Amino acid sequence: xxxxxxxxxxxxxxxxxxxxxxxxxxxxxxxxxxxxxxxxxxxxxxxxxxxxxxxxxxxxxxxxxxxxxxxxxxxxxxxxxxxxxxxxxxxxxxxxxxxxxxxxxxxxxxxxxxxxxxxxxxxxxxxxxxxxxxxxxxxxxxxxxxxxxxxxxxxxxxxxxxxxxxxxxxxxxxxxxxxxxxxxxxxxxxxxxxxxxxxxxxxxxxxxxxxxxxxxxxxxxxxxxxxxxxxxxxxxxxxxxxxxxxxxxxxxxxxxxxxxxxxxxxxxxxxxxxxxxxxxxxxxxxxxxxxxxxxxxxxxxxxxxxxxxxxxxxxxxxxxxxxxxxxxxxxxxxxxxxxxxxxxxxxxxxxxxxxxxxxxxxxxxxxxxxxxxxxxxxxxxxxxxxxxx
Length: 389
Prior knowledge:
By secondary structure, this protein is mainly alpha-helical. Helices cover 47% and strands 6% of the residues.
């Protein structure tokens, strides 16, 4: 029987493999398809020179300021002391009359109890220097706290994301202290409250940070001019009456110096060298910071230590710097035909018989009779203020 010889089997069979990841290739039978390599990411795509932080401290500062304001209004209890309260439906949270506080807030006596900046209570044996810090958490009214908290959110969150909560927290608190210190050395009387000094410190730190890290920014001249314009506008507002511009100036100068200390960034080449992947050639750099950054750091730290030390010494000795600088008061208020800068002295004559108190304002001659259960000096001063307004 004839045997027919079968054709030899080919060593290689061709088959189409289902494409994966867009790889439509033909492979030999019996061999696993080789997956296509993922597209390589370039160094510029994966490299981020500076860490991006999550902001949580600045929102906590905002909440803390609001809580303190609510507590202040609760303790103020306007209906107990006045029958002309605004928004009386709020009960003890209602606001003082417009004549006494146009910012919709508590009385000055309540702010004083809560820790407002009052020079006389920090010297002459009272030793209440803690008011330098407590006053920055107090606000005179709804309009006041609203403006400050909006500014804190817009400025502070961006800075905390860039530099972290530790450095921005230190800049905020120390700048607020510096603003209170300069204010206490110049204000003649009255009280001062608000976070404006701390906010101006953040503005000042933004300016010094831009100068210190000048080489790593693009469009830096435009950013510098814009920031300077914003700072000048805000400081110019401080020459209006009833605005403590010394707190603004003190906070700004403190923040400006603190920016050179806390917000300094390593030079880009040094960071590039440390984070470069294997095989990536970088320019060798030995120093983490540039020489001018070290110089600014040392000078700023010395100025901060010397300034705070001398300021505290002068304050506790009761020194009024207006006596040594005849023109400095114009930095806080410039008198015009529309307003005067010197605070109006409020004085009243009182005559008390039992629970009946007769109060006569010395400036306008108005007289009022009040039935008082609380005849404390602060309550009498509040009545005098209302009568003379």
